[in-house]
């Protein structure tokens, strides 16, 4: 699964730390999600999408081999 978190953060001009605080996780967690090394839980993915005010599918993209 890919994601657009880095792009969305740039649009909103927020840091990884800002996003992490908003969804109550560590900055390292946001970093690993952005780097596609970690797939967030459904709840965390929904919280992240809510911060950006976008549907889940606009932030997280399911790839064909997922």
- Strand-and-helix sequence, N→C? EHHHHHE
Oligomer: single chain
How does the helix and strand content classify structurally? mainly alpha
Rg, alpha carbons: 11 Å
Uncertain spans, ≥5 residues at pLDDT below 50? none
Q: Could you estimate the helical fraction of the residues in percent?
A: 55-70%
Q: What's the total count of β strands?
A: 2
Count every helix, treating DSSP H or I runs of 4 or more residues as helices: 5
Please state how the strands of the largest beta sheet are arranged side by side.
1-2
The percent range for strand residues is: 5-15%
**Main β sheet profile:** 2 strands, antiparallel
**Rough shape?**
globular
Kindly report the average pLDDT value. Answer: 97
Distance between the termini: 6 Å
Compose a concise summary of this entry.
This protein has five helices and two strands; from the N terminus they run E-H-H-H-H-H-E. It is mainly alpha-helical and 66 residues long. The mean pLDDT is 97.
Write a structural description.
The chain has 66 residues and is mainly α. Helix content is 59%, strand content 6%. The chain has five helices and two strands; from the N terminus they run βαααααβ. The chain has helices at residues 5-12, 16-23, 27-34, 42-52, 56-59, and strands at residues 2-3, 60-61. Strands 1-2 form a two-stranded antiparallel sheet. Helix 2 packs across helix 3. The protein is globular, with a radius of gyration of 11 Å.
């Amino acid at each position: 699964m890919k994601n657009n978190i880095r792009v969305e953060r740039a649009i909103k001009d927020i840091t990884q730390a800002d996003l992490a605080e908003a969804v109550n996780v560590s900055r390292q967690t946001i970093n690993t999600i952005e780097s596609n090394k970690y797939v967030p839980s459904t709840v965390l993915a929904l919280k992240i999408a809510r911060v950006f005010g976008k549907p889940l599918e606009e932030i997280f993209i399911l790839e064909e081999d997922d």
